[in-house]
Design goal:
This protein is mostly helical. It has a domain of 191 residues. It has nine helices and no strands.
């Protein structure tokens, strides 16, 4: 894997590269993936990366606004609708700022380029876990009860409604999904073991539960119950895990001597921006899961 993201300036012949984002960093012998920007001016607003990030951010904001409108009309939960609308406005603001100041999207683009392979590696771990979960079901092991017990133990009786069921609000899913999101990043402190465990374990749970419920309700119902929010939630989690694995790699490079500095200002800024963007996607997934997923499933399959 070509690994080098902190040195964007093209070095002169005979001179070592220096991270333009950190004036105090000494010359680094660590190769970093080239961005192609060099030391020239920022990319124009109509450049490919800027267009791509603008399109993605605008699309996410439209989903958030549509979710807010659906919540207000179908559920009447005005507080939740306002929350989704605020999220949409925040994403719209990012799109506007990113177009007017391309450096914002350049940071995100650099961060994604640096962490992309690690995010795909995390996706592979999750997929492996899902296969294991399905095989466990084939062997007669049902993990759905374990999953529900974990939820009940985590939230306790205070989160139960009068009918003894959990109130599935956006807040519930944000509170439930943020800890593993952060743990996937912090797992780097365990040399990636916790991050790996989170990816595989979540994959096992999803694979097993899909296999169990799929045989009872059919594949179509499972798709309707997972895809609407899963297309947002899973990429956010994979990005978080990718950040964790990338940090482990940087530590390994530093120990091996191929990297002169573990942190640079630009690395910290761009990685923080990517993590924040991924968390906003996770929040969007929470609103969709709480208020949209079941509407879609009910409309298609009367669940």
């Amino acid at each position: 894997m070509n690994d080098s993201r902190d040195n964007h300036d093209e070095p002169s012949v005979g001179q070592p590269p220096v991270d333009p984002g950190d004036d105090t960093e000494r010359p680094s012998s660590s190769p970093e993936p080239a961005t192609g920007r060099g030391s020239g001016p920022p990319e124009p607003p109509d450049s490919g990366p800027i267009r791509n990030w603008t399109g993605l951010t605008v699309a996410l904001s439209l989903v958030a606004f549509a979710t807010a409108a659906t919540i207000a009309v179908a559920d009447g939960a005005l507080t939740a609708a306002a929350g989704a609308a605020i999220l949409g406005a925040s994403l719209s603001a990012i799109a506007v700022v990113g177009r007017s100041k391309p450096v914002v999207f350049e940071l995100l683009d650099d961060a994604w380029a640096e962490h992309r392979l690690y995010a795909w590696f995390s996706t592979g771990l999750f997929a492996l876990g899902a296969v294991i979960g399905a095989l466990l079901y084939a062997a007669g092991i049902d993990l759905t009860e374990l999953f529900m017990e974990m939820i009940m133990e985590e939230f306790g009786e205070d989160e139960l409604s009068g009918e003894g069921t959990l109130e599935l609000s956006a807040t519930f899913f944000i509170v439930n999904n943020t800890p593993p999101f952060l743990a996937a990043i912090a797992g780097a402190l365990t040399l990636g073991f916790v991050t790996l465990l989170i990816m595989v374990f979540n994959g096992v749970l999803v694979g097993n539960i899909v296999a169990v419920t799929g045989t009872e309700t059919g594949l179509g119902v499972i798709i309707a119950l997972l895809v609407p929010h899963g297309i947002f939630e899973l990429p956010a989690l994979f990005i978080a895990a990718g950040v964790g694995f990338r940090f482990v790699h940087r530590v390994g490079q530093r120990i091996a001597g191929s990297r002169d500095t573990l942190f640079t200002k630009r690395y910290l800024v761009r990685t923080t921006a990517l993590v924040g963007f991924a968390w906003l996607i996770l929040v969007l997934a929470a609103f969709v899961e709480a208020y949209i997923t079941f509407l879609i499933a009910d409309a298609l399959f009367a669940v």
